[in-house]
Amino acid sequence: MQRVFEALASSARRRILAYLAHTELNAGEIAARLAMSKPAVSQHLSILEAAGLVASEKRGQYVFYRQVQENLVNTLNGFVQEVCPIGRPLRRESAARAARGGPDDPG
Amino acid sequence: MQRVFEALASSARRRILAYLAHTELNAGEIAARLAMSKPAVSQHLSILEAAGLVASEKRGQYVFYRQVQENLVNTLNGFVQEVCPIGRPLRRESAARAARGGPDDPG
DNA sequence: TCGTTATTTAAGAAATTAACGAAATACGCA
DNA sequence: TGCGTATTTCGTTAATTTCTTAAATAACGA
Hints:
homodimer, alpha+beta, three-stranded antiparallel beta sheet
């Protein structure tokens, strides 16, 4: 949880998550979308991975990154439920996901 | 959004939000719950207030803090919708909520 | 007014973060 | 084996964060 919120505190990392929302990308493709050096992007990716928000897989020369959605949704959802007695929107999302047989809700 | 995520990156500030989930508290009562000096707590509170996550009101000698729930819920909810394709069905719910005059949806 | 309490502001030290370029590592291809 | 590409690690620097103590501000009550 600490790592998730620290990871989300950076706009570069949130942008990376947004890019990975629709498709997986390799490290170079991600770096090309952020006006930033490749080593800096690599560091951001390792922070996201340590937080469990993305996963990487090396295929040939490339390292592909994809989002790990459950961890993001569950962490934010759990926090909202802990802190917000009226945290309805995420609760509904959670319920809808459960009804569809999606990942479980921690709260 | 940037300020909200920066505010949430600190465990002390998340703990403050949790304390304020159920009741309002004055600055001294919050400081008493965190093993930290009062000036440090005051600074955390000002960061939370700048992020729109809490509001303060001075009553006599004391400054009372309360949570502003909509901002937390809407920011996290909007981010999940942007980043998590799995959360898309919720957008219809958000539209319905807006039509009923409930809290607004940033997505 | 004076003394006490509650809170914030100011100043500064210690730790962390974020970026860069250079170098190292790993892979693919010939 | 050797070259070129992709990615990460290393070493460094600048900026930011977080905390502390001391001082300032504001309000209460005698």
